[in-house]
Amino acid sequence: MKTLIKPLMLALSLLPLSALGCEMPEMSEYDTVSCLVDDLAKVAKNNKWGFAHKNGKQIIPIQYDDVLDFKEGLVGVSQNGKWGYIDKTGKVVIPIQYDFAFNFL
């Protein structure tokens, strides 16, 4: 019985990693690149964030202090300590004037 527990625990611990299915694009021009979501990756350079297409083309300029994840076509972005939401083209949909922002469920 003990011999089955270790392999089972190892397999279960690796399950969450495979369930994520994170596709990491090759984009060496950025300091940080996140997993692709709907063909977009969060990218950072010099502690500022934006979004790039999976082909590497910058879609939303790297100008934000922080960004959340896209949900329902919107993403929370922070500038100068305030939060708002933009769409996938970078257009501000909810003004960047709030103290907090959260991902949509």
TrEMBL record:
<protein>
    <submittedName>
        <fullName>KWG Leptospira</fullName>
    </submittedName>
</protein>
<dbReference type="Pfam" id="PF14903">
    <property type="entry name" value="WG_beta_rep"/>
</dbReference>
<feature type="signal peptide">
    <location>
        <begin position="1"/>
        <end position="21"/>
    </location>
</feature>
<keyword id="KW-0732">Signal</keyword>
<dbReference type="InterPro" id="IPR032774">
    <property type="entry name" value="WG_beta_rep"/>
</dbReference>
